[in-house]
Design goal:
It is built from 6 helices and 6 strands, in the order E-H-E-H-H-E-H-E-H-H-E-E. By secondary structure, it is α/β, with parallel strands linked by helices. It has a single domain, classed as 3-Layer(aba) Sandwich (Rossmann fold), CATH 3.40.50.
Amino acid sequence: MSRSQRPLEFFVDRSLGRHRVPEALRAAGWVLRTHHEIYGERDEQVPDVEWLELCGRRKMPVLSKDRRLRYRPAEIEAIRRFGVRAFLLTSGSLLAAEQAARFDRSRESIEEKCAADGPVIYAAQVSRIVRVLPS
C-alpha cells in the first residue's frame, strides 16, 4: 500500500489527554498516535519544539487544544521550519467528548487541508476550521 493509500495518521498532543479524546476519535475511525504512546514516561518532559519536529518530519498532522502554540516564537519557528500542519481547538472549556466531536465534525475539511504541505495552523471551531497561520 502506498503512502497515499494509507489512512492519514494524526498526532494527538498531550493537551488533549491520554485516553478520553483519543479513544473517542479512534471510535469515530481516526488513525492516531498520542503524545504518550510515542514518548512514554518521558511524555511530560518533551519540549513542544521536539514533538513538532517529529510531526513535521513524519508528516503527521497535529491535533491539540494548546491555543498558545500559535503565539510562542520557538513553536512558531518549529512549525514553519518542519512544515507542521496543526489543528487547534479554540475553546479550552470543552469536555473531552465535545473536543473529539469538534474535530470529527470537521474531519473532511481537516483531511482535505492535510493534502497540502505545511506550515499551517487551523483553528477548529464549532463546525468549521479557519486558517490562523500563515494569516
